[in-house]
Amino acid sequence: MRGGPFMTHTLAGIDTALWDITGKLWGVPVYRLLGGPTRDKVRFYPTPSATKIGVGPQPFSGTPQQIEAIVKSVEDARTKVGPDGIVMFDAHCALPPPFLIQLASAIKPSELLYIEEPAVPGNIEVFKRLKQHISIPLAVGEQARTIWDVIGYLQEGCADILEVDCAHTGGITQLRIYLQLKLSVWCKLFKFGKSYIRLRY
Fold first, then answer.
1. Of 41, 54, 69, 136, which one has the fewest beta carbons inside 10 Å?
2. From residue 183, how far is each of 16, 31, 124, 161, 179 by CA, in Å?
3. What is the model's pLDDT at position 194?
4. Could you give the 3-state DSSP secondary structure of residue 11?
5. Whole-angstrom Cα distance, residue 170 to residue 45?
6. Residue 24, Cβ neighbours under 10 Å: how many?
7. Burial class of residue 185 in the structure, from the number of CB atoms within 10 Å of its CB (0-12 exposed, 13-18 middle, 19+ buried)
8. Which residues of 144-169 are buried (b: 16+ CB within 10 A; e: fewer)?
9. Hey, where are the domains in the chain?
10. How far apart are CA 47 and CA 132, in angstroms?
């Protein structure tokens, strides 16, 4: 998209403001405009029963020692939250696909909720390969800027969970389009909350 992230962030601010203005004109909170509440509580992390761990960029060579170190951190997290808790793993697009495939096999017994951002966006063939070899659900879309950035994941069945941020992808209106698309291919949609938008409640 011409303008890149700056353009989509700007559009998101305008779109969200228009939703907020509409809610004020009608005298209702934005969630009412969107159809009303569907649940009375929302799960979040970190909590004593939910945690996410991950790795950052570093000089990986994919040695058994490196895999063992990450596996241990996942196992420690599982021990900390208990068998009924939630553990998530964020790959931060930093692990080469062969390394991540090996790692996913090793951490499978820890029963992760998902592996987030398994690869750098842009090459759908890499995601197809990862999905073919990894049974843990894959969460993608954090870096998406338009619907075209995620439609390939849905068409190819590479996404179990979409983690899109309405402040990155054009606003609430665009988020509704994501929701409609995910219903057509069945995957979960998580509202990714890195960017905080204040709406009228």
1. 41
2. 23, 19, 21, 12, 6
3. 45
4. helix
5. 25
6. 12
7. middle
8. bbbbebbebbbeeebbbbbbbbbbbb
9. 4-36+46-191
10. 32
- pLDDT tens-digit map of 109-168: 999 999 999 999 888 999 999 999 999 999 998 888 887 888 888 888 888 888 888 888
> Tokens at residue 88, please?
């998530």
β-sheet bridge partners, residue 88: 52
Q: How confident is the model at residue 39 (pLDDT cuts 50, 70, 90)?
A: confident
- Name the helix (H) or strand (E) containing 89: strand 86-90
CATH superfamily of 4-36+46-191: Enolase-like C-terminal domain (3.20.20.120)
Q: Each residue of 45-72: pLDDT tens digit?
A: 899 999 999 887 667 667 888 889 999 9
Alpha-helix runs per DSSP H in 43-136 = 64-81, 97-107, 124-133
* Contact predicate 116/142, CB 8 Å: yes
* 8-state DSSP, 133: H
- Global pTM reads 0.83
Q: Do 113 and 81 contact (CB within 8 A), yes or no?
A: no
In single-letter form, the type of residue at position 125 comes to E
Integer Cα distance of 161 and 52 in angstroms: 15
